[in-house]
């Protein structure tokens, strides 16, 4: 029977273990703290990519504005850190001590209302989830209830990313403008700039990443995961089977937004600042490329995609800064045209069958396609 | 609804239904009534508005004016998924199944439980679900194909699968749009047998061109022409109606 009660099938289990080994053991042991911090930065995009797997890969909702949620999460965290760095003692040379430096430069004399909750760490954590979540809910409800989808939705999300960037840049006194929120020092009194803190933050991030992987996998395995696939193919059939398609789309979009926001908040911690350059159209499209390269139907593929494309970006943009964006564009086109399944598709279509053949050639019994698959599925993981 | 004025309580009462697309009236002042457990076949030449009538009932198209009462509920004001939940099921003309899911999963999605987001997250594939899916799969001749991806089914099998998806929904009114179109002769016979079995205990509204098939199943036939009723009655009556012979059967 197709009832598969296990959480991961065999190849997913291998993917899970391989990723855990790499992130928890191999990288921390082999990389110096500078490189490890780079990996941590790459991994913040993996959160976005996992959300996109659910939303785009499964639900068929292409959002070209995930940078918005990444940014909102990042800014929420940055506001907390900035307030902590702007204590009266630290800012006594300002004309108004106790407010962030950029506000002082912009002749603002009082902390704006919407900054006040970010004095509290618990409220900040709540805001990192709620602000992007609610924003995604509003966008989703406005679009999906009106049956806006496909390319139109993608363009609108892109427009929102552009608008938010302009808003942040324009409201310099409240947001830090084009420079973003910089000079962040401590998290709840703990200095985040030391090597030791970076090392610990890396592990916190990897743990959270695996948390998101597990949540995404859980959603994928429920009936909701199958409805997302069904919706992507035959929206009308789902609607005429008694489901409110819009609600399911809103849910997928909100989950993707919250994942992106967690990534954004961690980005601020790892990198030490947040700026509108991580919010706009270009970063949003790059996030989609990470997902496409890794494989938009694969949660683990999304993590690999984020790591590899960012690694390539760092190495290549150091040597060929002008060529890099063309390279990225070419990579995206190549993946879409030649390998729509991305890296995980290549693995499943070319590598996995060879491994299976290697294993099954040692076993006495082997059958054809379907039988083979069910045997592999019901066999205990090796 | 209609109590007192009508001799019987109708399951579905369509009254003065009109829909116009940019001035073109695809359905024009149409009224008809479907009783409980009745099998009604709608026939008519191409462009008569048959599929549009089904679209109007299931909420896919919004009516310009008129009313559609189902068990006393006004369907013209309800959303598609609410209409389904009220007990109206619709099969589309081209087989509409989920290619990337297995036959089992296709049927399971149509199982009438866990239709909200939270319900879908907490949905358990328990014994009742499995039993019902297997039961339906047996009826639609796909019992040994439960694990197969719907993509790999033949055209006829996809049609059956979609009928099965409706069946598992257990609607009070089942609407089928050309259920035997594009099927081989043997598949047609099997489908007729299948339909005869599943139309028990529910009302069915069928659009079909195959007159042999219509004669086999119809209690009553409605002939549409240019969005209006040309003739209505038993197959015998309709067949001998000179107007019907003129515009439809004569060709």
What's this model, at a glance?
With 382 residues, chain A is an all-alpha fold. Chain A is built from 16 helices and two strands.
Structural class of chain B: alpha/beta
Strand order within the widest beta sheet of chain B: 6-7-8-3-9-10
Instruction: Note the total helix count of chain B.
Output: 10
Give the tally of β-strands of chain B: 10
The N- and C-terminal alpha carbons of chain A lie at a distance of 21 Å
Task: Using the alpha-carbon principal axes, give the shape of chain B.
Answer: globular
Shape of chain A, please? Answer: globular
What is the multimeric organization of the chains shown? heterodimer
Question: What's the order of the H and E elements of chain A?
Answer: HHHHHHHEEHHHHHHHHH
The SS-based structural class of chain A is mainly alpha
SSE topology:
The complex is a heterodimer of chains A (382) and B (251).
Chain A (H helix, E strand, L loop, with lengths): L9 H21 L2 H26 L7 H20 L15 H5 L15 H24 L5 H21 L1 H4 L10 E2 L2 E2 L3 H27 L1 H11 L1 H5 L5 H27 L9 H14 L4 H21 L4 H15 L3 H21 L6 H10 L4
Antiparallel strand pairs in A: 1-2
Chain B lengths: L11 E10 L2 E11 L4 E5 L6 H9 L6 E6 L2 E2 L5 H7 L1 E4 L11 H8 L6 H6 L4 H13 L15 H15 L3 E5 L7 H14 L4 E5 L3 H7 L2 E6 L2 E6 L1 H5 L2 H8 L2
Helix pairs in contact in B: 3-5, 3-6, 5-6
């Amino acid at each position: 029977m197709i009832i598969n009660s296990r959480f991961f099938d065999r190849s997913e289990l291998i993917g899970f273990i391989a990723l855990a080994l790499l992130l928890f053991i191999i990288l921390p042991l082999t990389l110096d703290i500078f490189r490890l911090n780079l990996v941590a930065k790459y991994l913040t995009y993996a959160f976005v990519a996992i959300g996109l797997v659910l939303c785009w890969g499964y639900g068929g909702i292409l959002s070209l504005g995930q940078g918005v949620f990444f940014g909102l999460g990042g800014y929420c965290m940055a506001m907390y850190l900035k307030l902590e760095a702007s204590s009266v003692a630290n800012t006594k040379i300002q004309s108004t001590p106790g407010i962030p430096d950029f506000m002082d430069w912009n002749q603002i004399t009082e902390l704006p209302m919407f900054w006040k909750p970010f004095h509290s760490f618990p409220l900040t954590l709540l805001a990192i989830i709620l602000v992007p979540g609610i924003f995604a809910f509003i966008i989703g409800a406005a679009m999906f209830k009106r049956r806006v989808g496909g390319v139109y939705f993608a363009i609108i999300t892109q427009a929102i990313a552009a608008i938010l960037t302009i808003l942040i840049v324009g409201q310099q006194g409240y947001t830090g403008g084009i420079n973003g929120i910089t000079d962040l020092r401590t998290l709840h009194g703990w200095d985040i700039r030391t090597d030791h803190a970076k090392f610990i933050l890396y592990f916190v991030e990897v743990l959270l990443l695996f948390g998101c992987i597990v949540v995404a996998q859980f959603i994928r395995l429920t009936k909701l995961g199958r409805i997302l696939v069904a919706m992507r193919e035959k929206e009308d059939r789902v609607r005429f089977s008694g489901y409110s398609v819009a609600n399911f789309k809103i849910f997928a979009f909100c989950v993707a937004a919250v994942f992106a926001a967690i990534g954004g908040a961690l980005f601020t911690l790892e990198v030490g600042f947040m700026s509108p350059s991580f919010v706009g159209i270009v970063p949003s499209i790059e996030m989609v490329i990470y997902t496409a390269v890794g494989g938009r139907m694969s949660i683990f593929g999304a993590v690999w995609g984020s790591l590899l494309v960012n690694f390539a970006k760092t190495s290549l943009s150091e040597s060929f800064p002008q060529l890099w964006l063309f390279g990225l564009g070419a990579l995206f086109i190549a993946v879409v045209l030649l390998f729509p399944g991305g890296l995980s598709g290549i693995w499943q279509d070319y590598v996995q069958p060879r491994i299976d053949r290697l294993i099954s050639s040692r076993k006495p019994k082997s059958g054809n396609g379907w039988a083979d698959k069910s045997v592999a599925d019901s066999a205990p993981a090796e | 609804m209609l109590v007192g004025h009508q001799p019987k309580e109708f399951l579905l009462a369509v009254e003065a239904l009109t829909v116009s697309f940019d001035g073109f009236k695809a359905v024009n002042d149409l009224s008809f009534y479907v009783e409980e457990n009745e099998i009604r076949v709608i026939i008519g030449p191409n462009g008569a508005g048959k599929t549009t009538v089904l679209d109007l009932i299931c909420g896919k198209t919004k009516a310009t004016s008129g009313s559609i009462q189902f068990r006393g509920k006004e369907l013209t004001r309800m959303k598609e998924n609410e209409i389904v939940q009220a007990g109206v099921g619709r099969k589309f003309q081209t087989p509409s199944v989920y290619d990337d899911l297995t036959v089992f999963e296709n049927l399971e999605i149509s199982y009438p439980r866990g239709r909200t987001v939270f319900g879908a997250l907490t949905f358990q594939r328990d014994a009742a679900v499995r039993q019902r899916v297997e039961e339906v799969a047996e009826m639609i001749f796909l019992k040994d194909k439960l694990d197969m991806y719907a993509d790999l089914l033949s055209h006829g099998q996809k049609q059956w699968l979609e009928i099965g998806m409706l069946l598992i929904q257990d609607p009070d009114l089942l609407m089928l749009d050309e259920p035997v179109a594009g099927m081989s002769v043997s598949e047609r016979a099997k489908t007729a047998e299948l339909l005869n079995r599943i139309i028990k205990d529910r009302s069915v509204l069928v659009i079909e061109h195959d007159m042999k098939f219509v004669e086999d199943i119809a209690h009553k036939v409605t002939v549409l022409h240019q969005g209006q009723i040309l003739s209505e009655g038993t197959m015998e009556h309709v067949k001998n109606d000179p107007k019907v012979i003129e515009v439809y059967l004569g060709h």
